[in-house]
């Protein structure tokens, strides 16, 4: 029988671990801009999702069980360009740096890498290819960190 772990339990567990991903998304300020709220919410939900996906990589057995959460990450990655529209530049409560809109090509390259990494993660999970899955997970995490270093205020 499969065990069901509610998303809030995974979120609480990831908060208790002191993960860097959690620290990158704490203390949200409500912006009242639906696009900014959507991107902040999506990135916050990535924390427990990446935690769950990471457990699949670390555990024994099939990584195919991570195909569904990996598909959610890939879907969110595809939505990112729409969530960083020019009208969201300077929104109070957003941690997005002006460099996102000043360096459109650089930001687009970061988003493209994240999209590619999450697509590879989903494909590896669906193929039940642990080696490719682990590499794609590392690539996905590195993509998050790289983009935040360049385009997110502390």
From TrEMBL:
InterPro entries: Cyt_c/b562, Cyt_c_II, Cyt_c_prime. Residues 1-24 form the signal peptide. Pfam families: Cytochrom_C_2. Keywords: Electron transport, Heme, Iron, Metal-binding, Signal, Transport. This is Cytochrome c. The lineage of its organism: Bacteria, Pseudomonadati, Pseudomonadota, Alphaproteobacteria, Sphingomonadales.
